Amino acid sequence: HLSKDDTLGHALLKMRDGLSENERVLEQKVVERTEEVVKQKEEIELKTKELEILFKQVTDSIHYAKRIQEAILPPNNLVKQILPESFVLYKPKDIVSGDFYWIDKKNNWCYFAAVDCTGHGVPGAFMSIVGYNLLKDILKNTDSIQASIIMDKMNDGVANTLHTNTTSGKQTKDGMDMTLCALNYETLELQFAGAFNPLYIIRGNELIQYKADKFPVGMFIGEKQNFTNHSIQLQKGDSIYIFSDGYADQFGGPRGKKFMAGNFRQLLSDVSKLPIERQKTMLNQTIEEWRGNLEQVDDILIIGVKI
Question: Mean pLDDT score of the chain, rounded to an integer?
Fold first, then answer.
C-alpha cells in the first residue's frame, strides 16, 4: 500500500483510473456510434428500396405510354402504301416523344406531316396525342386540300383544346412546330405549309428551300396569323424532306458543337442520290457517329419521299 505522503504514487493511480474510465467511455461511444451508423445504413437501404420501387412504377407506366404513343404512329406498311418511295427516321430522346409523324390519304391526295410539340418526354407525348387526334379529325371533316388551311384549323384546335384564353391575355406556351405536305402522285402537285421548320426539295444537284412561317401552331402572341400556302409543281426524280430541328441541333463531333442546318442540308444533298432505305441508314449512322458518347439533345424526326 502507498503511504499517505506518496503524492506521486497517488497521482499515478488516479491517472490510471482516469485512463481506464476514458477508455470505457470511448468504447461506449464507439458502440453507440456503430449502432447509429448501422441504423442509418438500414434507413438508407430502405429508402433506396422504396425509390427503386417508385422508379420502376414510373418507368413501367411510361413504357406503357410508349405503347399507346406508338399505336398512333402510322405502321410501316401503311407508310409504304401511301408513300411508296419513302423513309421515316424517328429517334425519340426519351422513352416517349414530343415529335410525331402523321401520314394519311384522302381522295387523290397523300398527306404527311412532321410535328414537334413543345418539350420532349411525357409533356411532349401528351401534346403529340392532342395533335394526332386533331389532324385526323380535321382531315375527316374538311374538303380543303390546302396545307395552310389544315394548319390554320390545327391552330384553332390546339388553342381550343388547351383553352388558350386570348381575352385575359393568358397565353399558353404549348405549341407545335410543324411541316405539312399534301402530295398528288398523278399531277405531281405538292401543297406545303410550315410552322418554323422548312421544306427541302432536292432536284438534281440543287437543294430548293421553302421557308416556313415564323410562328408555331396553337400559340397566339398578339394577333392570330394565318399560315402561308405553297403550291409546288414537282418533277419525276425529286426528293422531298421534312423534319424537326432535333437533327441539326445535336451536339457532337470533335469539338462538341451543334451539327447545324448547313451541314444537314449538305448531308441531305449527298444522300439524296442513294436508294431510299440506304438514305435512312446513312442519316442514322451519321448522327450517331457525330453524337459519340454525348447525350441526345432532342427528339429526332426526318421524313424523306422520292418522286
Answer: 89
